Amino acid sequence: MSLHRKKYQNAVLYLCQKLKGEIRGKKKLAKLLYFADFDLYEKSQKSITGDVYRALPMGPVPSTLEEITAEMTKKKMLGVERVEEREGYNPTEVYKCLTEPDLSVFDDEEKKMLDRVVVKYGHLNGKQLEELSHAEAPYIGTELRKEIPYELAFYRGTDFSEL
To answer: What is the model's pTM?
Structure first.
């Protein structure tokens, strides 16, 4: 699988836009992308971002997320702000979309999947999404810090009847 840079960037922008213009926390962004990619793979054997996910202690994390968001910040597509929410905790990264997503990069199915992710997972915080992803076959079936095979998505038994 190879990285789909344009789709990756626009998926981040689209999720951001749909969630009232911002996503609070890198963990939340990472998990929303995970659900978008693995749900689509389970349904259609393809991924939106093309990224490789690793099984980290806090759940699946896309390998190129830092690079992509840094690139987007440089190009003024995305604003990233570090907010001190609680004392003694790492600051929360808040991602704000500064440009409109280009939806022409997505086919119908990809766009529907992103919308589904917004509805199903958008209201949850990073911690809740972490717990959900920990309960899934792709994460459970992968050794810590190793690459999560997309094929493990087929062991999830997701109900896509609403699509």
So the answer is: 0.96
